[in-house]
Each structure stands twice: as C-alpha cells, then as structure tokens.
Amino acid sequence: MTTDSTLRFGAQTDEVTSLLRIVNLVRTGEATTRPEIGKVTGLGRGVVSQRVDQAIQIGFLGDGEFGASSGGRAPRTLRFRAEQGRIVICALGAAHIRVGIAALDGDIQDHAHRPWDIAQGPEKTITAVMSLVDDVLKKHPAVPVWAVVVGLPGPVDFATGQPVAPPIMPGWNGFDVRTPFEERFNAPVWVDNDSNLLALGERARRRDSLTDLIYCKIGSGVGAGLLSKGRIHRGANGAAGDIGHVRVADSDAQCRCGKVGCLEAVAGGWALVRDAEQAIKEGVQTSLAGRTKKAPLTLEDITLAAQGGDSLAISLIQKSARVAGETISALVNMFNPGVIVIGGAIASAGEVFLAEVRRRVYELSLPLATRDLTITLSVNDEREPLRGGAELAREQLFEITFPRWFAEGRPSPERVAVPA
C-alpha cells in the first residue's frame, strides 16, 4: 500500500487524482458505497478498495451503515468524516458582528451575535470578533479549525484578503485581515464581501450548483452577490456587485462614500431612517413618531410600521424598492439571471417592497431577460451569511486547494506575501 509520505506530491498522479475524486464523491453523496464508486469512476474493484482504505487511513472517510442489497450481501456505505475539522465564520456588517462554527459538511453548530460599529476600525473590530469566536468555541469540544471565512460589508480583493476602498469602513483600506486569523487558528483564511457569502448561502440552500443568481442585500447599505453558473463573479478588483454606489437619476442625496446621488443614499436603511426622521420633524402623522421618543429609529422600525399599514413607512419602503428595482433591472439586462433574491433587513417588509421591485424590473428589463426570471425574498434567517461562509470554505478546501494539502490530512495556511 502507498504510504502517506509518497502522497506528498509535487505533481498530481493518477493515484492521487483518484483518491481526491473518491473522497469528494463520498463527501457530496454522489457515490457512497464501493460498488457505486467503481461504477462512477470506472476503477476496478481492487483499486477502489485500495483507494478507500487509503482515504480511511488518512482520516477523510469512515464506514457507515449497510446499504440496500441488490441481490447479494448488502454493501457497507462510506461517510465523509465531517466531524474531524471545524470551520469558523465571521460575518461583519455595518452595525453588527455575527460569528459561527460549522462542521466540514456545512452544518452550523453554533453562532453568536453582537452590535458593533464597523467604523471603529480593523484592530478593535478584529479583537472583538476573536473574543466572540472564543466564547462560542469554549462551549464545544476541541476540534481542529480547518478554515476561517471573514465577510466584510465592502469590496474585497479576494486574492489578498484586503478590503479595497470600502466606503463605510474608515481605516480598513488595504488592511491585512487574513494574517491575524491565520496566526490565531493556524488555518487557511478567506475574506470576501458579505453579499457574496449570502449568494453562496442561497446556492447551498437551493442545492443548485449551476445557478445564475443575483442576491441583493438591502440593509444599512446596499450590495449584490453575483453567481454565474454557481460561481461567484468578483470582478477584476473585487468591486463586482457594489451596486450601492450606482448613481440614481435626479438625486442629490449625499452618500456616506462622499459622492452624491448613490443608490445607498436613497434606498439604503440609513437613508430611510434619515428621511423618516425628517418627515417626523416636519409634522407628518406617523406611528414612527412614538418610537423615536424611546430609542433611535431603525430600519427594522420602519419595516414593522409598513407591515402595520403606516402610510409614511409604506411610502419610504416603496421609494426604496422603486429605485432599487431600477438598478436591478440594469443588472438583469446585462447579467440575465434566473433568480433574484432580495435580502437584508429590508426583506422583512415583505410584499410591500417586493411588489414594487418586481414592477420596476419587469417594466424596465428586456422581455427575453425576464422570461424565466424569478424574483423572491430571502428566507431572512440570521444564519444565512454563516451558511454562505461555510459554503465558501468547503468550496475552497475541497474543490480548489484539496490537491495541495490532501496528503497532510488537514489544511494549513498558504502563506502569501501581502503588499505593504
């Protein structure tokens, strides 16, 4: 039998290729018995048995239950040992931190959340994130961390893990987010835009590996994650999907990025709060006036009021939906997705928001581009960015970097020099 040491390869051999494929066949459930593996791969029974034994010895696979018999002795199923490693996911928003841990099959095992202003800067924020992760990890048995994913509310250079001129994140531009997490967990770290994580979470939930999908997140800010045939489109500099700073016609609203007339400055959560507070000052009758006496107004307050029939809240939500729909329609014409998912805090407004978005998209987009288009709300589950982060980690670990670290039995950081 080939030893572990001979699998530490420079070039990928047929043996290693077949081992990688067998592990992934079992991991994805495409083939879970030795006969099924032989049928899918075309490998002989003896070779399959040898490769499976190697995968078990290294620690990737284990024996499962007995499967259904096709006439002879029932074959024993194989299972991917998802419990051998752990994924840490840190999803940062403009006003919150959410962290979670997942098994290698993507199952979210635990999560935690706290309010946080991203504008406090990277050092304080990362310290707060690490503390929250430690609190979660303390509640669970010690399992090696195999991957860390960090989601940020701004453009990210995926190759370096550095934020790129994020409009609402002062002090973050070019900051090396990856290294502190690599040093803390001794595991590979991937940093991405939060909307991309949400798009990947939607892909996992739908179990559609080849979907063409746009996930539009409208919360405090506005952004989009673009899936083309199931793969994230990030663009040359990580700016793909940053629709929050597309110019809205005839708008002179000042944006947090310093420009005027951005979509976020008209349709984002903070813009709706700004407009609601101004309307209250001007004496507009609204149930929101009572809320401002107890605590600062939030987007959630506005969406709840809209659901309750408040006319000011409804008008604000519809205005946001109208201008967002206009921008989304341009994406539909250029990208031709099969599905558009509306998420973020605005999703809790439900049909009040969705109906207006649909109306504008179908009105302004080409008939061919909307012929098979579905526009829907997200499931609005707070764990969605965590699921998306786990999906990103699993994709990177088992589809992209697997050959590099397979023989080691677990991944380690791939140290890459980050430009100063």
Number of strands: 14
Rounded to the nearest angstrom, the radius of gyration is 24 Å
**3D shape:** globular
Helix/strand order: HHHEEEEEHEEEHEHEEEHHHHHEHHEHH
Strand arrangement in the largest pleated sheet: 5-4-3-6-9
Helicity level: 40-55%
What can be said about the biggest beta sheet?
Answer: 5 strands, mixed
Mean pLDDT: 91
Number of helical segments with 4 or more residues: 15
Determine the structural class based on helices, strands and strand pairing.
alpha/beta
* Terminus-to-terminus distance: 47 Å
Q: In terms of per-residue confidence, which ranges show pLDDT below 50 for 5 or more consecutive residues?
A: 1-11
Question: What portion of the residues fall into strands of 2 or more residues?
Answer: 15-25%
Could you explain the architecture of this structure?
The protein is α/β, with parallel strands linked by helices. The protein has helices spanning 14-28, 34-41, 45-58, 122-137, 178-185, 194-206, 263-267, 269-281, 288-292, 299-307, 311-335, 351-364, 367-370, 384-400, 402-405, and strands at 61-66, 76-80, 86-92, 96-103, 108-115, 145-152, 156-157, 162-163, 189-193, 213-218, 222-228, 231-232, 339-343, 374-377. The strands form 4 sheets. It has a 5-stranded mixed sheet with strand order 5-4-3-6-9, with helices on both faces. Strands 12-11-10-13-14 form a 5-stranded mixed sheet. Strands 1-2 form a two-stranded antiparallel ribbon. Helix 6 crosses helix 14. The two termini are 47 Å apart. Mean pLDDT is 91; it is low at 1-11.
